[in-house]
Amino acid sequence: MGALSHLRVLDLSRVLAGPWAGQILADLGAEVIKVERPGRGDDTRAWGPPFLADHAGNSTGEAAYYLAANRNKRSVTIDFTRPEGQKLVRDLAAGSDILIENFKVGGLAAYGLDYASLSAVNPQLIYCSITGFGQTGPYAARPGYDFMVQGMGGLMSLTGKADGEPGAGPAKVGVALTDILTGLYSTVAMLAALAHRDKGGGGQQIDMALLDVQVACLANQAMNYLTTGVAPERLGNAHPNIVPYQDFPTADGDFILTVGNDSQFAKFAGVAGHPEWASDPRFASNQQRVANRKQLIPLIRQATVFKTTEQWVAELEVAGVPCGPINDLSQVFADPQVVARELAIHMQHPLAGTVPTVASPLRLSASPVEYRHAPPLLGEHTKEVLQQLLDMDALTYDQLHAAGVV
Question: Is 391 a catalytic residue?
């Protein structure tokens, strides 16, 4: 039994941040019911190609993007713009522990599905609202998407080649990282709210904003600014506070060197054939290496090109110096460590036979993650859920289905 198998989650969210949080809860055992629009569903169902293919190579119409964030859920289609649909959602919320939504601020109030309305039905409900900018502030009414928030929240000012270098300019991260981080923070907040409820505190609303999360995750770079008043600049793959901590060229490509202390630097200098660097007053301490970055980095580059990536990784591993290759995804999923940790798994799928998915990184010894359901087809479980949870009879279901409510 999963750690959260006693919980029911009503997931009204779509795209990534909310569904990511819902998938985490589902992986941990919660019963997660994904409520979608009839006929269309989650926007990401159409975000392809690529689409999942069946054994014959034919498209199933299930977008890879959608498949990434909806494992272990049941899909129910309900048109809650109609009174009959609103009642169904209210009835489901009455028996749920958590509700996740990412509609615009105030968007669900018109349907009687906002926190004030549903908390009156279920005072123990934890209601997690995810928006671009939060429930308050001058931007609250604006829509917010990961890419724009990466820009507004400062991440892109720190990502990309340094000014003056070929190809310089701001760059977004290669995955929707702000959405993912918001999903993670939302999960933490919901678990905290559950702990509060378990102590007799009742339900509550959680106000999550992509911009808040992005600014919070600036971490050391935010503090570099707040303690100095000087905005950090883009450094490409270099680190603002540690040297050497970046990519370097090799005889057959590139590798990453991540020297975290002076001892590791001395070991690296020895492997590189330049033990004198460790005693050079310009490079002996990290503070000195940061100050003399422009002198040290070209010297290292001149040394690293004489060995292959494989040679550097092997020799530095023996020396105890952290380093690694720069893998593409085919290399990632073929990596012995990734294979040993079983990070790529397959689940049974009603259209494709099986569907590949990336395993959860959560490893609990007593209540491990279980892979119960492939990402559901649109409305796959509507009849099942309404009959099981709301005691709906077949005639009522057929009438609602014929009317397009479900």
Answer: no
